[in-house]
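Curious: can you check?
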Amino acid sequence: MPGLVSVKTPPENPPLRISISEAPTQRSEPGISKTPSPLPKKPPSPSPSRSKPSPDRRSKKPQSESPNPILSEASLDNPDLGPFLLKLARDTIASGEGPTKALDYAIRAAKSFERCAVEGEPSLDLAMSLHVLAAIYCSLGRFEEAVPVLERAIQVPDVPRGADHALAAFSGHMQLGDTFSMLGQVDRSIACYEEGLKIQIEALGDTDPRVGETCRYLAEAHVQAMQFDRAEELCKKTLEIHRVHSEPASLEEAADRRLMALICEAKGDYEASLEHLVLASMAMIANGQDNEVAAIDVSIGNIYMSLCRFDEAIFSYQKALTVFKSAKGDNHPSVASVFVRLADLYHRTGKLRESKSYCENALRIYAKPVPGTTAEEIAGGLSEISAIYESVDEPEEALKLLQKAMKLLEDKPGQQSTIAGIEARMGVMYYMTGRYEEARSSFGSAIAKLRASGERKSSFFGVVLNQMGLACVQLFKIDEATELFEEARGILEQECGPCHQDTIGVYSNLAATYDAMGRVDDAIEILEYVLKLREEKLGIANPDFEDEKRRLAELLKEAGKTRDKKAKSLENLIDPSSKKKKEATKRWPGLGFRI
């Protein structure tokens, strides 16, 4: 999920991930106690007589020990064994013996519950054991194996049977959504969360405080996926629920407003974002949360900078910096993050010396992080600093920082989209420095990750396709470039519309590739459509208009035609969408490619 970070839930809030409560079972000892009990004694070892070799077979190896009766397959039909094995799994994890042994217990517990289940009767014990099994798989980093387990788990409960079944179904969908998220499959993750929310609303009603927590959690997921309209809808619902059930200026409301501010900022509504942040800050002050107030001050500074109110932004940043240094120390990553914001501000105002000084201060902190600093924090800071170096025409230094950031994240689950974003940025820098093969490779890797993570329909994906197409053009791979431009066009038309500047840019690139391939009629049809859009909807003041008009005239002259003022719709030619930026290329200056 590239780029945006969700607002943290206040520490006082109850955890969103709801574990399944001890559901009533048909057995007298369910064995799903939440309090870990002491590790039970191991079964007695086999008798010495069985472990000795037989007198008449001294030359052979000793016979293997008899199987543990508790773990044997035949004993799994015992209805008391499932709860016992599940308890063993939980106690093994609690005792620190490691998840591998617990995994074996959990697998056998699930098998036992499945064998002992009454046909036609859903077993909540089975659902619980599958949840535990999936959690152990995830703790081992085996997320792919957890998915089918959870898919089986959500099929077990029968929601109409009551609250226990609804809770089991809800927990299963949310756990499955988290697992998909760790695999980077954003769309599937959000679909699971949505289904979980639906079940929870049916069971509890749409104004229950627990529904509000789930709405906020789902809103954060939509923010990560850059689906801001749905995120805003959910966040508004969360605010409404907390107004009913919480005191004015509560921590819950403050967290909701911080998330709403993030959404408004992403949508370009800076004034609304600022209003939510000020209200959130007041709530945090009322609750004595100084560190959270400082974090909000950083966000307020970001809004002021977006509004070009630079003096107010500096004041907000300096306030936050003072609090962070006092509370966390001079070398904390929170301090470094403020240095990065100040570096960006001074860069925007043309004070490059101050900007570079703050960048260097931040890099010193990231080079020797204090204990507890996460790789994600460092990678995010390095990525932001690289953008500053890139903008002051130091691409090599920017590339080094991006490579460090990518190395920090490459082994972290759930970071595929972030890594793809870093690779796309590296591809752009490789392209601008004339390293087209490296650019194509970097774009290709980013595209593969975005496809795998389910972001193949996002506008960002369309942009990366367009940029890879341009790299292919520079390498004279025109057929490959055409395929990429066509796919990008389809996506950007769908996500941005035909009048968006990015979509029009891909139209222009596609026309140029058609021209290079000798498909003059197709190139003419695209350019006629683009000019019609500019004349009828966008205006002709754009400097690209004259260039496109000249290119069309040359193509028409070559084909012996005149311009059709009633340009045909590209319904049958233009697929949905495409994306790019601007600048003539070096090897194909006459064809009008842009990036």
Q: What stands out?
A: Residues 1-67, 565-592 have pLDDT under 50 and may be disordered. The two ends are 23 Å apart (CA to CA). Residues 163-182 form the longest helix (20 residues). The CA atoms of residues 265 and 273 lie 6 Å apart.
